[in-house]
Amino acid sequence: MRSIFIGAAVLAPALSYAAGFDCAKASTPIEKAICASPKVSALDGELGDAFKVALAGHPGKADALKLDQRHWLASRDEAISSQIRDEPGKTLSGDVARYRDRIDFLKGLDAPVPKPLDVIAAALPKLSGSQYDVLHGLAAKGVPLVVAKSSDMSKPSDFPYEADKTVANALTEGSGDAQYRVLAGSPVSSVYSLQGTANCWSETPFRIEGKKAIAVEAPDAWGADCMSSHELVKIAGDYAAVVVGYGGADELRVQAARWEGKAFGKDALLVARFDHTLSIKGSACAPKQSPCDDFAATAMTVANRFDRSPLADTLARLPQGADKAAYAAAYAAATADDGMAAKKSQTRPSLPDFGTGFTDGSMADYSAEGTLFPLTFRGETLLGYIDHGHVGWRVNDDWIVSAWRLKAGQLEPVASAYIEVKRGAFLLSSMVPVPAPDPH
């Protein structure tokens, strides 16, 4: 059940409840948690109103809106479920699931798109679903867009301009790692470096006056953020500082500040939403067999269901006719203090590939939040395990699915599959408020 019933959202009368549904009838853990938090309940009601207004105002985009809302609700449920599991009994925090971001997106569908983001917004439907290097991808589609190249410097003296004090300090601080942007005809550039395992940016922009490099104030788009893509771009006739951020397969964020002669102008933020698709990357069954097509099909059924509603009950209720006793024994072994899914342990197994190597190059570790569920495969009741791919603290959108059996008191892996989640067709874009810089 969803807190907003998509098909009837436009037709539903205004509700007297704070949430987007009748809290007196709340039945799922998600709904009860929403109703127990005055802040989240109010946000849920505001979201429901914003969605109804968006549908009424954009009848030609109704299908895209409904599909996108289903994707967002799945991510919302996953975030709330995670908080319920990690902090049982605690009231949901007001920032759970980024409700405010979603409300702003729905309200911004009619907002005018300023230069130079208007060029990108108009071209987004051309973007290939598999193209994650967005700016170069759009340029390859004929969009009038040129991305600056980077020039490495082994020492500060390699810098081709006369640097003022601020730029000189940036060159020294980034010695050995510092680079500067090269874009023919551009009156502005920057010295930058990437630091740490999270690839955090340190960037000092400067305007070019003959042979001089004179530092200018950095736009919010070039703040000290991490895990994003900073670029200097010529878009049609404009130059702009651009940051491309990825909110998973479903979301793309493009923040830009236009160069206005002596300084950067005000930042603007365009958020684009996409459909996504699931596909098998690889599968294997014990002891060594690849591909394992029958388990791949089983895993895809599981992942498709879980992707739409990533809650433990989604899979616990699968009509597989599971042998409850066998599953209960395997579950107890997995969650025991020394088990592979022990609640007090932060270590988890990796997706077994049985020596086939099909997980090479993938985030194939389970996190501490993987979901156990009953799975029937080849007529046998097994312990299933599903999670996003992890490497250390990093996580991706992909699903990894495994099955174990309990044998002589020990769990042994039976089969596994890696399912890629890829960006699909463009759905919608919206102008949203620029968030406060997030320094690291």
Helix/strand order: HHHHHHEEEHEEEEEEEEHHHEEEE
Overall tally of domains: 3
User: What structural category characterises the helix and strand content?
Assistant: alpha+beta
Q: Which blocks of ≥5 consecutive residues have pLDDT under 50?
A: 1-17
* Span of the ends, CA to CA: 38 Å
Q: Mean pLDDT score, rounded?
A: 89
In total, the number of strands is: 15
Percent helix range: 25-40%
Q: Could you please describe the fold and organization of this structure?
A:
- It is a single chain.
- This protein is an alpha+beta fold.
- The chain folds into three domains: 6-107; 117-266, no CATH class; 276-424, no CATH class.
- 27% of the residues lie in helices and 30% in strands.
- The strands form two sheets. Strands 1-8-9-10-11-15-14-13-12 form a nine-stranded antiparallel beta sheet, sandwiched between helices. It has a six-stranded mixed beta sheet with strand order 2-4-5-6-7-3.
- Strand 14 and strand 15 form a beta hairpin.
- Helix 2 (38-57) runs parallel beside helix 4 (99-107).
- The protein is globular and about 80 Å long.
- 38% of the residues are buried.
- The model is unreliable at 1-17 (pLDDT under 50).
SSE topology sketch:
Elements: H1 29-36, H2 38-57, H3 62-86, H4 99-107, H5 117-123, H6 134-140, E1 145-147, E2 149-152, E3 162-163, H7 165-173, E4 179-182, E5 188-195, E6 200-209, E7 212-215, E8 229-235, E9 238-246, E10 251-258, E11 268-285, H8 293-308, H9 312-316, H10 324-335, E12 371-377, E13 380-391, E14 394-407, E15 410-432
Parallel strand pairs: 3-7
Antiparallel strand pairs: 1-8, 2-4, 4-5, 5-6, 6-7, 8-9, 9-10, 10-11, 11-15, 12-13, 13-14, 14-15
